[in-house]
Amino acid sequence: MKGEIKDAIKNALKAEGSDIDVKDSNCPEGFNGNNPDNIINRLGIKGIQLEQSRMARNDFHDVIAQAVVNAISSRINV
Question: What is the pTM of this model?
Answer without folding.
Answer: 0.79
